[in-house]
Write a structure and sequence with these properties.
single chain; 117 residues; mainly beta; Immunoglobulin-like; 0% helix; elongated
């Protein structure tokens, strides 16, 4: 995770199993979030932060003592890497995994420099 903010590594918060990979053209985030629908997610750029949140609609379940309402919520805020083009972030949710692709801005992408003799 070379070049990424310290907040993106280390301890994982409960409920979000995050995998962050830095590639030549983008930062890719995968978050384990089974049991949600794509509409349950709210992804925002707030200032210099990427905010991921999910709220599952309340469900009525029955146990031995009667009915209970259950609601699942997840939240994570992290600094947005300076080299990411925030206007082109793409998010998808499939099979319990939220995937975000944060493309790098053109001037920060890796490029090979040819050595001339």
């Amino acid at each position: 995770m070379h070049g990424l903010p310290a907040a993106w590594g280390g301890e994982r918060p409960p409920g979000w199993g995050l995998d962050v990979q830095e590639r030549d053209d983008a930062v890719v985030i995968r978050a384990d979030a089974p049991g949600f629908d794509a509409d349950d997610f709210d992804i925002e750029i707030r200032g210099d932060n990427l905010v991921l949140s999910a709220c599952q609609s309340e469900e009525k379940t029955q146990d031995e003592e009667g009915y209970q309402w259950q609601k699942r919520e997840l939240y994570r805020s992290m600094p947005l890497p300076a080299h990411v083009d925030a206007e082109k972030i793409d998010a998808q949710y499939h099979n319990g995994v939220l995937s975000l692709k944060l493309p790098k801005s053109e001037h920060t992408k890796s490029r090979k420099i040819q050595v001339k003799s």
